[in-house]
Amino acid sequence: MPDATFPGAWSVDAGGSAPPFEQLRTHVLELVTSGELPAGFRLPPVRSLAEQLGLAANTVARAYKELEADGIVETRGRNGTLVSAQGDAAQRAAQLAASEYASRARSLGLTPDAALELVKTALTLC
Question: Which residue from 4, 67, 72, 112 has the highest number of Cβ atoms inside 10 Å of its Cβ?
Answer without folding.
Answer: 67
